[in-house]
Amino acid sequence: MTDGVPGVPGILTPAGPWRNWGRTARAEPRFVARPRSIEEVAATVRFASVRGLPVKPVGTGHSFSEIAGTAGVQLDMSALTGVVAVDPASGTVGLGAGTTLREASALLGPLRLAFENLGDIDRQTISGATSTGTHGTGAAFGGLSTQIVALTLVTADGAVLRIDHRENSELLPAARVGLGALGVIVEVTIQCVPAFLLHAIERPEPFDEVLGSFEERATGVDHFEFYWFPHTETVLTKNNTRLPAGSPRRPLGRVRSWVDDDLLSNGALALCCTIGRMAPKATPPINRMATRLVGDREFADDSAAVFTSLRRVRFREMEYAIPREAVPDALRDVRNLIQRRGWRISFPIEVRVAAPDENWLSTAYRRESGYIAVHRHVRDDPIEYFQAIENVMRSYDGRPHWGKMHFQDAGSLAGLYPRFADFLAVRDRLDPDRLFANPYLARVLGP
Question: If we measure between CA atoms, which residue out of 80, 83, 10 comes closest to residue 38?
């Protein structure tokens, strides 16, 4: 089957159907490869190139867009994990591309290092999360890709390309958020920070009060975010302040953690979504009850434990980045839209912020950004809701998260990114025959 291509026999097998975690994307690759080394990745790429088969790496399937789909060769990167290099002097750590964020945080702990910032889900691979522009919150902190100081790609000709500040440095702003369009990332080097704690204060507050002071709140603590339950006048605010590693830990107890994170945030949410689907009129009172049950807690723990949350309830998500100062007006528009359409929305809407950065396809490229994320339960049809919300976000020059659902294409996206054409030029250079293309990339980048 592999015609003796070095490194490929034994790792390339016929593939079955694949679908992502949120059940928003599916694919039927012809082959699946499970490489155990960079050399095997390169051999697989050469194998596919000779036969005209497209190639796409796949991580844990936590993207809600169809960015990982392929009808050709699917690269399962789960064997390329762990720490591959550590520089204690600089605090940089090299990680295999298939290492999940959760695994990476556990590996950084004994080194007394940490990610500078994280999103609220840690099940994604480091390469998938950075390639799609995954971010956390914090007005002074960029997305995960801003922490990359080097990466290694296997390009369309099977060559291994190192990109850092000394070699091919001009490619870093493109490759950090590369959408999988430039090659297969096999290693990522992260600029870490000394391990730290987060002091967390979570509490319900009035919707209008929080929006009225949004700018002060967003910039007043290290990491600010909030959740709004539609059909209520209450938001759940989360205020996290960074503390040195030697500060006293005051983690949540096991019982409180189970009640808050398992019973309420997951079990009760699943029940609310089920009831709301069967009896939509019950959604508003259920949401009002939820705002009285969640939040109102204070604790201090290791950064990764506070940044990330357990997500057991499957959902579908769309998220838009808009200018930070536009968040209050945009969220009021969303509230009015939900009321006007008469929708019954069980899932809370998440609001976060991020600092500007220089990565060409970053949703925060040269813009202080606010993020508004909307969700629907996996069994609910999200299309009408998401399309209408997208129209609101586009009126504020919104940029969609590359790894989440949206309906834009290259024609509309090009005007949102000043370096869009430069990114396409890099793609033409590294993948002129579109070995790493798929229908999603053809839509958002062009053929």
Answer: 80
Question: In this predicted structure, what is the pLDDT of residue 164?
Answer: 97
Place of tokens 């919300």: 389
Instruction: Compute the distance between CA of residue 150 and CA of residue 155 in angstroms, rounded to an integer.
Output: 15
Walking along the chain (447 residues) 10 residues at a time, the average pLDDT comes out as 53 92 94 96 95 95 95 96 97 98 98 97 96 98 98 97 97 98 98 98 96 98 96 95 95 59 56 69 73 81 93 90 98 98 93 98 98 94 97 98 98 98 98 98 97
Alpha helices (H) in 231-300, listed in sequence order? 254-257, 269-278, 283-293
**Distances in Å between the alpha carbon of 421 and those of 95, 183, 244, 277, 428?**
30, 18, 43, 44, 10
Q: Hey, CA dihedral for 349, 350, 355, 358, is it positive or negative?
A: negative
| The length of the chain, given as a count of residues | 447
H-type helices in 52-180, by residue range? 101-108, 126-131, 172-175
Tokens 């699946």: give the residue: 32
Return the CATH number of 196-410, one of 3.55.40.20, 3.40.462.10, 3.30.450.20, 3.10.20.310: 3.40.462.10
Closest CA to 203 of 230, 239, 233, 228: 239
Residue from 64, 27, 18, 25 nearest 315 by CA? 64
Helix (H) or strand (E) holding 397: none
Residue 164 burial class via C-beta count within 10 angstroms: exposed 0-12, middle 13-18, buried 19 and up: middle
pTM over 0.85: yes
Taking residue 67's Cβ as centre, other Cβ atoms within 10 Å add up to 23
How far apart are the C-alpha atoms of 328 and 99, rounded to whole Å?
37
Query: Where would I find the H helices in 362-416?
Result: 383-394, 410-413
Question: Alpha carbon of 185 to those of 25, 97, 264, 401: distances in Å?
Answer: 22, 6, 38, 20
Fold of 12-76: 3.30.43
State both tokens at 196. Answer: 């730290």
- The hierarchical CATH code for the domain 83-194+422-445 is 3.30.465.10
pLDDT at 175: 98
Task: Give the pLDDT score at 263.
Answer: 42
Closest CA to 163 of 439, 444, 429: 429
Q: Give me the residue spans of the domains in the chain.
A: 12-76, 83-194+422-445, 196-410
User: Are 224 and 237 within 8 A, CB to CB?
Assistant: yes
Which contacts qualify for 416-422: CB closer than 8 Å, 24 or more apart?
A: 417/360, 417/361, 417/365, 418/365, 418/366, 419/173, 419/360, 419/361, 419/365, 420/360, 420/361, 422/174, 422/360
